[in-house]
Amino acid sequence: MAKKLKRKTQKVHIAFTLNGEPCEVAFAPHKTLLEVLREDLNLTGTKHGCELGECGTCAVLVDRKPVLSCLVLGLTVEGREVTTVEGMQLADGSLHPLQTAFADLGAAQCGYCTPGFLLTAKELLEKNSKPTRDDIKEALSGNLCRCTGYIKIYEAVELAAARMRGEAAEVPEEVVLGLK
Amino acid sequence: MSKTNPKPTRVVGKPYRKVDAAAKVMGLTKFADDLVRPRMLYCKILRSPVPHALIKKIETSQAEKLAGVVAVLTGQLLPIAYGILPVSEDEHALCIDKVRFVGDPVAAVAALDEDTAFEAMNAIEVEYEPLPSFSSIPESLSGPKSKGPAGNGDESESWRIHTYGESGNIHKVVALEFGDVEAGFREADRVREDVFFYEGSTHLPMEQHAALAEVDGDGKLCLWSSTQTPHYVHRALAKVLEMPGSRIRVIATPNGGGFGGKSDPFQHEMIVAKLALMTGRPVKVTLTREEVFYAHRGRHPVLMWVKTGVKKDGAITAMHFRTFLDGGAYGSYGVASTYYTGALQTVTYPIANYKFEGVRVFTNKPPCGPKRGHGTPQPRFALEVQLDKIAAELGIDPVTIRRDHLIQPNSLTANYLRVGSTGLAACIDKVVEASGFKKKFGKLPYGQGVGLACGSYLSGAGLPIYWNNMPHTGVQLRLDRQGGVCVMCGSIDIGQGSDSILAYIVAEVLGIDPFDIRVLTADTDLTPVDLGSYSSRVTLMSGNAALQAAERARDLLVQAFTEKYGVPVSRVAFADGRVFDVEKPEAGISFAQAVQLAETKFGTIGTVGSYTPPVSHGKYKGAGVGPSPAYSYTAAVAEVQVDPQTGIVRVDRIWIAHDVGKSINPALVMGQVEGSVYMGLGEALMEEMSYRGNRNTVHKFPSLLEYKSPTTLEMCDVKTFLIEDPDPQGPFGAKEVGQGPLLPVPPVIANAVYDAVGVRIDEIPITPDKVLAALRSKGEEHSPQEAGVTLGTREPHRYGPHTIPSFDWPDPVRVRTPWEGGDGKELLREAVHAKE
Question: What is the Cα–Cα distance from B549 to A177, expressed in whole angstroms?
Fold first, then answer.
């Protein structure tokens, strides 16, 4: 019994940068990045919706690009830079403008798909500081949300983008109060 | 418009952030699968690969021998049946002697890691003896072609999916008549019959169901689960495990989406609880996405026949509504679902005489149950599309036929539902004006169209699921001398913001910041019972309980304050974290100091609130489904484009106005409206539970990729209007919003498709193949005016069912309508026959 278990769980060891900090972790070599993050590093902010690459829920950034963490092996991030939702806050501990906007507009209802949306949107805003509504739809088209109908998510991304451009953007009334 | 003249509010009505929003955007919220306990085992569940079979043998020895396997469980160890409704306790944690659908749980394992559990699950061998399977409404209505498991004439009843129910595979039959529909049809100027079909769909929450069970040193059990109904899970566990409820604790974890799909007590919850008791170790299970499709409990596929009589002006003299529900393999909420397919037709437009007949059958498919709108989107689709056809026949426009015949506020319907406030007129006016409906309807170029539809939904079911006279919800409030306020309630936040609603209401009454309040919910050891997050009940019911508890706490503080400072009670105000005399605001004390005064005078400060809905007016058998303290109202206009070459329907925009009574938080109300539009759009255009293979009982695509749901690229633009017609039954006048706004969406799209290309798609979802089939049946004629709408006969330019199965309906329960002098009770059978 002991012999069999030992062979099955023989671990590999990698080093990479996780949320801006050096990280070393040992895990069974067949594990996906999603599993390594959740099970070996206790970063449960990254969620799973299908574990088949269909829903975008498990999206994280690898070298600043969105990656479906359920489709890549943990081994592949050796020496690379991984960002999860736990690493989105700014250096002073305050929320990233996307996080603030998502919270203020109700873009996170159940909150389960939210980390994947936040990270995908973060990458969008890094390469396009003034995205149109269609740019946002295109960028987020691989992320499913069943609660919001995406509307508050678009509005939150637009609000965060404006604030990140340095504009003193307020929450538009019709977004939180409805039309008159 | 407001019937009350409310005081200005400081928290209620403001678009505050949700109390759990920061945790959610930081990834800190702990969902069930995020929980890990020391020495935790992993559970996997073996499910049936066949749709209907007797279990002859389950061989677990190979699985038990595997290194790392700690326990293997079969149904013999959990022999007690359970089910959400007391009338259909037809489920077992694991099937014992037969399986009823592909995906039915048969055995479970607990192992040191997930891979071992998976391997062990696959090492279990089950021997099945196939039974005839039933995959459709007509099949189940007619029974097997030949008797016996092998069709060999054996008289045993093993072909029946369940041996309870009406007969054969017929689970439930309902027949109700209010007034006299035949007389109503005779009074009508026009009578129209239509047949509709609404395909089943599933909730598809992004979070797969998960549960974790743990037993403490004293043998007490704790279950964490992503459930919408911790109280019902608590009851089911006590029953199935034969343990006192006092030794079981159920903690509902924040749901990563529910939509009704986490409202039943589930097999996996019973299984991990039993495995934890057997092994003495924590055991966790997380369903795979495929298993979530089997857990289902989603929208019933419903075939409908509607006969409606109207006067020339569109007033409805009589409606006869028949529904046929494909229930899948178990009861679930199905008896309630059956009633719901006939309950809410009456609450939008007055129906002078109303007859409803419904039948639910068992089939060998995953069980259907409550999905957002529970049993009402299907008939609402039929009703709103038929009304459009009637309007066209009568030469009335779709706005007028609705707007001129609206249910009156504070009235009783034919089936004794009491309508309180109704802002439907305002809803219609708003969307018609904003969309420019009157300028567009019938006037847009071919391929573009607009439609209108309305809907209404409950603000909480008037009756509990199991018979009792206790409150439906309770809130306990604890105030401490540091100024801390903790609100405790059994309600569970499934993303709709119910935790926040508790905080906002308490903050409003006590004049404090909602973010200073600790909200503790959905823990059966710590929080008073709330029946669950279903039937759009939580804001109204828990909100009222929170209001009562907060007002009682406020009273204690007022007494202590007035005693100390000699200020009259009427002048004491609570605001900005202070308690003060309204005439000398600057001289007040802090909220914490007020609590200290009260604690000095009364001892520890704790109050409770509870809520029980008003007694319903209907007293007939079946009157329990439909009553609610208040009804929300919605109107919607859709603008669509239909490509006649491909049949693809693209919804550009939906204008929607929802009468929520009063928004406790308008941003959250908008979120519910937009989310409902989204889910309705998915059902209207693409979502369907489809089956194939072995007699059409194997799920065609149990995956997120192949079960099509709207992405950002399919979602339409939404223009939301919140109509506030406060209802005296709701806290601050609030009614529901979580489900009602879905109801008009499928029919509004169907009506807009007709306006665009002149074909009627009387079947949901409206997929391109159906649009093309309808267009082809029309040939080259492109003018919507030429679409043949012929009374009670086949229309050439449509897609949809033409017939319903013949069925021998029983004599209905007969009830006199309120306007016939009825008292809500059913007429005695003898009296009925004497009358005839």
Answer: 28
